[in-house]
Amino acid sequence: MSTIVLVHGAFADSASWAPVTRLLLDRGHTVSVPPVYNRSLAEDAASVRAFVEAIDGPVVLAGHSYGGAVITVAGVADNVAALVYVSGYALEVGESLGQLQGGFPDSELAANLVYTPYPVAGGEPGTDVSVVVEAFPRVFAAGVDPKVAEVLAVSQRPLSAAAFGEPAAVAAWKTKPGWGIVSSADLTINPDVERFGYKRAGLREVVEIDAPHLVMHHSPEQVADVIETAARATA
Predict the structure, then answer these.
(1) How open is the CA angle 221-223-85, to the nearest 5 degrees?
(2) CA dihedral in degrees (37, 38, 39, 44; nearest 10)?
(3) How far is CA 127 from the centre of its chain?
(4) SS3 per residue for 84-121
(5) pLDDT digits (tens, 9 = 90+) for 31-41
(6) Is the domain 3-102+163-233 a CATH 3.40.50.1820 member?
(7) pLDDT digits (tens, 9 = 90+) for 41-99
(8) Which uninterrupted H or E stretch holds 169?
(9) Is-contact 114 130, C-beta < 8 A?
(10) How far apart are CA 224 and CA 219, in angstroms?
(11) Could you give the angle at the alpha carbon of 142 between the alpha carbons of 137 and 146, nearest 5°?
(12) Where do the structural domains in the chain lie, given as residue ranges?
């Protein structure tokens, strides 16, 4: 049986996957949810790839949001059997998040971002990007329990601004079978960005869920079902 590795995105951490993680564990799956440091696409993908390659046996690699870009690069690891994009970016080789997103009208996210400098040892300061705390529940987690959304808002993990312009060196979907979930009520990523990337990647199946960006909290059973479908199809 494949190990399921869940990769979180920007403005979130491993807890963003908690409802789906619980369901998959209850259904008897082996699940791992590694941290993503949100510093650069190449570094984050290298970290996830190393994590995956240390697993004995096949892996189903699922990525949410920015995590979709991460699995696009990390998913070329030999033991990755399937990719699952969850409200995510399916990048082409040489394409960045900004380029893919720039081809479509802005979501509400762009107007609700905060830019904060962070120190870099021996170099110029970097810039962290996060979501305005007060806007987070509506833009990122609409439809999620307000108390849960409030906790997620104040514990979000920022994304380095540099990651938005960094091109993908490889695209695992060219050689690995993929599945996709579109959050049709997404206010963080324009759902058409998701649809376009998935269609271009030729994913085996795309499921549309009437859910916000944080679909794993809003509709965990449907997300778990798609991941299980990928696991069964590539067992």
Answers:
(1) 175
(2) 70
(3) 20
(4) EEECCCCCCCCCCHHHHHHCCCCCHHHHHEEEEEECCC
(5) 999 999 999 99
(6) yes
(7) 999 999 999 999 999 999 999 999 999 999 999 999 999 999 999 999 999 999 999 99
(8) none
(9) yes
(10) 9
(11) 55
(12) 3-102+163-233
